[in-house]
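Entry 14. Structure prediction run on the chain below.
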Amino acid sequence: MKVDNFRLQLGKKEYIPIVVGGMGVNISTTELALAAERLGGIGHISDAEVCHVCDQLFSTSYTTRKRKKYSYNAGNRDKFDVHFDLGELAEAQKMYVEHTVSQKSGNGAIFMNCMEKLTMRDSSETLQTRLSAAMDAGIDGLTLAAGLNLRTLDLIKDHPRFHDVKIGIIISSLRALNIFLKRAIKLRRIPDYIIVEGPLAGGHLGFGPEDWKSYNLYTIVKEVLDFLKSEDLTIPVIPAGGIFTGTDAVKFLETGASAVQVATRFTITKESGLPYDVKQRYINTEKGDIVVNTVSPTGYPMRMLRSSPVLNYAIKPNCEGFGYLLDNKGRCGYIESFYRALEAGKKGRRMEITDQTCLCTGMAKYDCWTCGDTAWRLKETTNKMAEGSWQLPAAEDIFLDYRFSEDHHIQKPSPEERVNS
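Output returned:
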């Protein structure tokens, strides 16, 4: 059996059952999402740090204006005064989404991964703004991710596209699904799809710092499928995390899943937003180079490369320009760690911060090298060049490999001229 033997049904539309995950900040680029859409699947973009993303793509100056506005507060550990301009936030979100969806050319769809943990100093207001603006701009679907917020549906229930746009949730347990569904049923807006993210995924994990080791994706997916059947609910279930081959995907599809979400193999594509040298690092990764840590100010454990520059950060917080993780009182774990280290520092010694990192700056600079548990296998998927570097596959190469491969075979991209025979 191949992935191509199955189809994902969402409403009245049918898709190739391959969903490319929404990796931020702008790792899942417009180009990557469009490649999946053109091939009949679903591609995600991410709204993580969308103002900064627009500054890079369209030469806007949202970050600069915000930094100038609050420059008086740059030396203050209290960030209570720092807010995003909701009008500019909506403008940036619309610009980014319209730029992407206007280029659709296939039968697939473009979804947006909306990171609910980006509290941005005003959690409800900024989340409502981002979701509403994405719908205004024509996004096909919204995937609610990075911290399931039970109030999210309430924030957009009056939007004219509330029952039109596809809305999905990312969960890591049946318990989380149960809690969310109770509120969704009251609003008569059951999610259109459920992404079940297991413990082998990249980036933030929906488990405790240690208990992620006690779970496996297949078991969680089976629990969710059995629960939905018992409740007579027909909602597509989409497993994610650790699905490295088409054969891995077929295992879940034969069990009753409707599609799979994949991401790690797409980090090294030509279309991925990661810098070239970082893609080479990913391919050269060995199993021992991957670590799950607790340095994220969100409180969630994260999986990344051990060599990520963000793990050595001791930089001044840039909340006046960024501030995407400031809570509603203007606090962030990294700010506290930074000022504790500053006060305890000794003259002539480099300041060290080991318990937290400045995730906003790290993600913006591509210094936070998040990856799935299977990243060490990336060298199996491409060709080594004569001078020692690795060929970067196109997103289409990987998408088609997932779609048509059998027996865990991985079809490498056609060798370029400089590749060893």
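The CA atoms of residues 247 and 353 lie 42 Å apart.
Filed with the rest of this week's runs.
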